[in-house]
Fold this protein.
Amino acid sequence: MAMMPLTIVTEGGECKVRSVRKTKTAPRLREMGFVDTAPLKVLSCNSAGVIVDLNGVRLALCRELASQIMVSC
Amino acid sequence: MVQEINIALIGNPNVGKTSLFNALTGSRQHVGNWPGVTVEKKTGERRHQGSTIKITDLPGTYSLEARSPDEKVANAHIMSGHPDVVVQVVDSTNMERNLYLTTQLLDMGQKVVLALNMSDMADARGDRLDLKAFSKGWGVPAVRISATRGEGLEDLLDTIISTFKDRSVPSPAVNFGAEIEGNISEVEAMLRSGGAGGTSPRWTAIRLLEGIEKVEEATADAGLRAKLTAALEGVDRDEVEMDLVDRRYVAITSLLDRTYVRGSEKRSLSDAIDRVVTHKYLGLPIFLTMMWGLFELTFTAAQPFVSAIGLGFEWLAAFVVENVQPDWLASMLGDGAIAGVGSVLVFLPNILVMFLLIALLEASGYLSRAAFIMDRIMTKMGLHGKSFIPMLLGLGCNVPAIMATRTIEDEKSRLITILSAPYISCSARLPVYVLLAGIFFPDNAGTALFLLYLLGIVVAVGSALLFRHTILKSETSPFIMELPPYRLPRLKNTILQMWDRGSMYLRKAGTFILAGAIIVWLLASLPWGVEYGSEESLVGAIGHLIEPFLAPLGFDWRIGVALVFGFIAKEIVVGSLGVLYGAVEGAGLEEAIALSMSAPSAAALMVFVLIYTPCVAALAAIRKETGSWKWTLFSVVYSLILAYIAAFIVYQVGLLIW
Amino acid sequence: MTESNNKSALISAAMGLAFIAMGLLEMAAVVIDPSVEIMLYLSSGGNILLALVLLFTGVVLLNAAMRFRNGTDGEAFLVVGCMLALFVGLVVSLTLAASATEAYLFGSEDFVDWSLADDFTPAIPMMIPSLAVLLSALRSFRSTAQEPAA
């Protein structure tokens, strides 16, 4: 299935996490639960950042971080 | 014989660990929404069934990889302190992520008891958990509790004791696959034979493989180091780290699939509010509205209490002067202690109201959203989204503001915030502004004040940007934050939070300012018989010493002395001026100042007070939070130089204008 | 359900306009001589920031009205708008109470000429309809606010 950065997903969209791009913060993201097949729902997406529902937890991410998370819907 | 059991309390931030700690030990602590509110290691005791359970409360962490200071503290305590049992507090409504920590604890070979907190909320949501199967799954006993309701605590204590007595050795929950497990075993064996790896060679092996711990840290033995380095060569750290995380979550999912069904998510109201509150255009004005409310209430609603306290102290001072003998004691108490401390306590209502409102915003969950909204702006200013709470608190008092920077995980961002925050004008400087603005800019006093605060913000932001691009070069760390559901703040906890921060201010008053006020009084009264606060006294001597340096700024010796005392605590500045002019605060002092200063020098003085070195209490906080004298000293020197230059410019320009 | 949407749109619009009006009045009070008696009751003496806050609350409510017409998320904006209205009203009320205490209880010198009308603004009584509308808007969310937690 096609992979895309989290920032492209429209509000309300549900998808699964696929991977996180290799950066300094990647380990932290993975630990928070952004692992392969984790279910994700996008609650809000604008220039400030993205708010997602990951495993029942609301997380707010700045845009830069969100663009490093690859998902498939 | 009384059995002693040592346990450590661990868990993700915001899971109610502190509530549990309070409930178990009966001590007064508060609950904050922000991770890192309880960074200090707190200890307490509880007696149960003839045993004494000693509890250490560890900082909230998501993992023990030890990337942030909180994690390092937690990890270090478990590795060196080796508690008998680790009680992990779990947010029952968020099992997946919470259990990540559990897998690590099991890798460390620790006996774990899971306290499934907020079980009432999980039930309300319709979650269903097969407790027995869950406990059996990893061999970790689990107890459902609700710390805030006090439910399940007896059960928990029983389980702690029975786990303590249980002789079986805990086993890791996760199998990392043949290859990695092989590597782990290999390294583990090396560590064991070399007597290294502390209480858990497996955990140390894992950390070495991930590259989090260096070979040099694991052992001092050169031979062992060589062996380890050879074994670790060719290991792709990133691959290992990714694999480890993935496998942990696979194990977690497998356990939960067998034993747990999540209820339907019902956060539609919370999410709806968030859509508006984080809206692209409306979000910031909403935040500004809340801030407007905060300031209105802080300055006006607290006013009656301020007046009440002011009256109280006036009466007290008069009483002392009349009834206390001998004269010198009356003077010391009346002119020194009471006047000095009174000038500070008079602000207590404002401070408490501000901290109360901030605590309310925090508890309701709004502040997390505000941090998210502010992040973009703050990043452009060289700060971090999470920096804005400390900056906000700085308006009350810099001491709790500096403490609050603990929530910022990125070391450099944290340091930058600590070094820039003091320029946000704290309440202690307000009396100086009010006094001078009232005398020299009576029609525009409000505007003058506003400009000063604005200047403070400009200097703070400017400094942050400067540091960010020069001495503390780094990219701002990306913002990620958990947004807890909105909720009605619990009154008791909110008041405790307010009091916790407010009491820092009080402690400052009780100690530094009291001491400072007495020192001022002393120096103004010696040598004996000299006129109080005149040029012949010791303060005069000090004043004349520094006068030449301050002349370009338009300050005379009295101002100089007041500024020196301001180093102890900014609140003392006005009081010192009163002492030095030999005038009582109020009309008398105002007259005296109006005669000896000019508008430009007044403006310069206000600017100088805004920027120059933080008071001793704040410096102590800086020293504590940065752990280094270097940065504390830097703060002093940088701010003095900056203040001097700024005041100089203001004065010289002022001379041209007026 | 366009019928109830239309009704909601109307209520939101009405409240929104009310707040815009209050905001404008407050702005006007900055320049108009406050001895014009009616102004005293309609504004709190020309507080620019208060004016902006009132205007903004109005904007949020009007936004809600628009969204009810479009069918997109009007409830959320109405709820937040009402909360803002309550918040503003509360702040102004507390300020009033504080001033009253200063004037009557302490007889402070700054408050010798103070009267109730000085700090009174229509934002205070507006809290009542705001609360009513808020409660009914909240009902449209099947689950109410979360239980107090840790």
